[in-house]
């Protein structure tokens, strides 16, 4: 619709036959999108064929991008650093629409009915809510602060944390999308820099900058009230710049236990989810970035900050021991499991490729060329809360 | 390919435009399939439009049918009572293939790599494994017994229980699909009549006929060993015929607690998943059939056996109290939530319709005509283990 560029990369003929009316058909459950951070493009990939399908260009600054999918797994909403929101049709392989909704954005989410896309912004701050179909503005909620950790909450709701005020705002769009009912949750802590919603939509975990520990909020409680957990988190480490603080998307809740990157240490921490107390540590090969559970929760895969970002380690979730160390490539930025956990796809930014491993034999299965790949997002995310 | 009948029911034009090459495109993440039990047909439905797309006929005896989806969410494998296995292309709306793989079958599963479909059989017993692409036979595992409760286990594996011998068989097809490595787990209990695998693929729960209590098997243990739980399950009730025993698909694991139908009583039981001990009971409006958690786990929806099968009750998972009683129609056989839980679709067999409710306001949103609908299956199941 707007700036539309389409490059055929390695177009693969659909495996199945034509439909009765002569159209080409393809299911979308096994597709995915890879962010190419340096070129403002995304690569559409096919999990079953372990192949790239096509590239869509013209998405602006993707140096710190994330995305979310429509419920039908056809459209990807890509949130760029430059405030751009791009709607990509992964079936047609086109840039269907693109708007600059703010000056500097950091992430977004789609409502559980698939009708609203929300974006959290640094400049001018607050949250913008747009129509998922047209990308037309629906609501602007200024908040007077930079916002972080935006997530979808069941019931046409969103939650976000405010960097400047240390609050969480729960926005309920169910009655009137343009005028959300707002619940402000104060005293979350100084300078939330990131946040995470658990997959049941119940627990919002907020990372704090310039203060030790983290905060959780039980969204099933009435009213929802902040509770401090892991009071020693980052306590004995020198203060790091905010961009060196671990992403909360690097947390995993495996059963009743959190596994998370330590701050500034070569360790993965374990914490009891109910008590919020640390229960143990595992030494690993570098400063962890993401601690990602295989979908069955039996193993955790860990990648690392430089200079150890060529390694990936696998931890047994029962023994908490490292059982495997892999060297899949240079600049491993992201790990994405196929939905039922059979494979893991790794972006090797500095090798310009995505590397695919069997998650049980640790055997390399395939590679896909990509331009400085960062995030890998499979369409199954459309069906999950908090992504 | 074989008996192919296609009836246009209420064909809806795709919302989005044509692709550049003129083909019609549609994502499959929001599609679903409704079993029409009396007519041997299935209805393909669109969650976003709350509408039927088309009907596929000629699937044989669907009086006790289930189905599973390919990883791309394009194909439904429908397991019929008569030993028929039908592969339906839900995008093209065609019966792509159909084989009679045994004399009398009761359910099936698809491997986590999407390559193998397994079917458990009463006649002649055992498990047949077929190629998911062609439906050609890959392996026959006789077992000398009727089999029940077949489920996919991560790593190209399947598990099944044997009615006659009281065993569980774990089939590992990862090294050689045609010659699975077999692990037999004895002493599961007398006459397993149904079984369930938890969504992490770890715990296999087996229901026993002619013996009180149930058995769980931890598939992460080496060797996996049966453990008896809920020793009083069904103890004070008269012995029921096997077709009156609760389906184990009626169980729910919400957090660390099982919720399950009592045997022959108007009660839902609560049990601690770790200890296997009963922790409480909730009185409900009839003999429960399915106790189904809303995807966030905050509520459980319950339907009932005749004569109370016109009612549905909603239980609060924190207080264990009934908070809502609905009368959605006559002969409510199945409840299926949209993947992020915003809506619930109910099959009202005796009203020949599917009824759609908002799962938070309990407001009726729409109805879809269907011929004696039973099971409703949304494509998001493709991404989950044990379904």
UniProtKB/TrEMBL annotation, chains A, B:
<protein>
    <submittedName>
        <fullName>Protein NirF</fullName>
    </submittedName>
</protein>
<feature type="signal peptide">
    <location>
        <begin position="1"/>
        <end position="19"/>
    </location>
</feature>
<dbReference type="InterPro" id="IPR051200">
    <property type="entry name" value="Host-pathogen_enzymatic-act"/>
</dbReference>
<dbReference type="InterPro" id="IPR003143">
    <property type="entry name" value="Cyt_cd1_C_sf"/>
</dbReference>
<dbReference type="Pfam" id="PF02239">
    <property type="entry name" value="Cytochrom_D1"/>
</dbReference>
<dbReference type="InterPro" id="IPR011048">
    <property type="entry name" value="Haem_d1_sf"/>
</dbReference>
<keyword id="KW-0732">Signal</keyword>
């Amino acid at each position: 619709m707007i700036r539309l560029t389409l490059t055929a990369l390695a177009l693969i003929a659909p495996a199945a036959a034509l439909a009765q009316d002569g159209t080409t058909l393809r299911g979308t459950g096994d597709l995915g999108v890879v962010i190419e951070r340096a070129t403002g493009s995304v690569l559409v990939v096919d999990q079953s064929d372990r192949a790239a399908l096509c590239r869509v260009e013209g998405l602006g600054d993707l140096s710190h991008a994330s995305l979310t999918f429509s419920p039908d797994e056809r459209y990807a909403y890509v949130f760029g650093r430059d405030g751009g929101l791009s709607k990509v049709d992964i079936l047609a392989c086109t840039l269907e629409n693109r708007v600059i909704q703010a000056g500097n954005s950091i992430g977004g989410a789609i409502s559980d009915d698939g009708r609203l896309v929300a974006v959290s912004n640094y400049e001018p701050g607050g949250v913008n809510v747009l129509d998922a179909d047209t990308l037309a503005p629906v609501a602007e909620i200024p908040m007077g602060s930079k916002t972080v950790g935006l997530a979808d909450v069941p019931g046409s709701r969103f939650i976000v944390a405010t960097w400047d005020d240390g609050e969480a705002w729960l926005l309920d769009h169910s009655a009137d999308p343009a005028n959300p009912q707002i619940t402000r949750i104060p005293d979350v802590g100084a300078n939330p820099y990131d946040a995470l919603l658990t997959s049941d939509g119940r627990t919002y975990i907020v990372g704090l900058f310039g203060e030790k520990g983290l905060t959780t909020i039980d969204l099933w409680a009435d009213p929802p009230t902040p509770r401090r957990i892991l009071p020693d988190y980052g306590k004995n480490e020198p203060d790091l710049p905010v961009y060196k603080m671990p992403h909360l998307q690097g947390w995993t809740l495996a059963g009743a236990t959190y596994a998370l990157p330590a701050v500034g240490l070569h360790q993965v921490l374990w914490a009891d989810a109910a008590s919020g107390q640390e229960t143990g540590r595992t030494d690993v090969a570098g400063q962890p970035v993401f601690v990602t559970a295989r979908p069955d929760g039996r193993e955790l895969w860990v990648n690392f900050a430089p200079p150890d970002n060529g390694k990936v380690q696998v931890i047994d979730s029962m023994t908490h021991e490292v059982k495997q160390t892999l060297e899949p490539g240079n600049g491993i930025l992201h790990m994405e499991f196929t939905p039922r956990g059979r494979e893991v796809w790794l972006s090797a930014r500095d090798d310009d490729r995505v590397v695919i491993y069997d998650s049980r034999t640790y055997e390399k299965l395939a590679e896909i060329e990509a331009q400085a790949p960062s995030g890998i997002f499979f369409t199954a995310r459309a069906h999950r809360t908090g992504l």
